Amino acid sequence: MASGNVWPSNGPQRYRKRRPLPAFILILVLGIAATMVWLNVMSTEREATANATHCDPPGPAPAQKTTPSTPPTTLGKALDYTSLDRTVPAPPRQVLVRVVNASTTKGAARIVTESLRQLGFEQVAKPTNDPLYGNTMTCRSQIRFGPQGTAAARTLSLVEPCAQLVRDERKDATVDVAIGEDFDTLRPNSSARSALEKLEQWAEEHPETKGGLQANGPQPEIDGALLTGARDVRC
């Protein structure tokens, strides 16, 4: 019986193993490059925001005595845009705020005062002119506050996210919103409005005690995504 040609067997066929190291190195390099690009974009955005919210310092302040009912006449320290990100905002009804006009637009402080009231800020003082800049503030706006007004300033930064944050040595909890030459209107986005609603709901469930929002007492719990979204704007 004839048999077909049979090739001699040299044992089990061996497969050449692929080395994963070059592919891993390529993925690692691409990941590092993508991270560097992302960090560069974030740095550029932070720098752009810092430039957009910057206000030049005012000229010499007039010599006059201030009281809790009048704005301070010495500008405090300008803070980084993200300085209040870890601060729990106060409900709008608990915020003591005063709007001062530092622009040449007549009635600007009055208009913003009414806008704040419509947003739920009940304790808004009578608007006045700015004793620091007069009418020469050539930026959008400032939020000025002291140690007692940090939570209130955080709330106001949700509705006016492009304001420069300025901390001074005032003793009370009043926060000044200074309107500059580049200001147009308050423009809280949907996240900011939702955050204000959540804060008001919390305030209704937790009647205000004497002295307002206390650092060692119950504080609102607001979704961090809402707070981040409220300030996620292009200034």
TrEMBL record:
Is Transcription given among the entry's keywords? no
Its recorded name reads LytR/CpsA/Psr regulator C-terminal domain-containing protein
Residue ranges of the LytR/CpsA/Psr regulator C-terminal domain?
94-183
Alphabetized InterPro entries for the sequence: LytR/CpsA/Psr_C (IPR027381)
Q: Which ranges of the sequence are coiled-coil?
A: none
Transmembrane segment boundaries:
21-41
Q: What is the lineage of its organism?
A: Bacteria, Bacillati, Actinomycetota, Actinomycetes, Pseudonocardiales
Q: Which domain of life is it from?
A: Bacteria
Q: Where is this region: Disordered?
A: 50-73, 204-235
* Keyword terms, alphabetized: Membrane, Transmembrane, Transmembrane helix
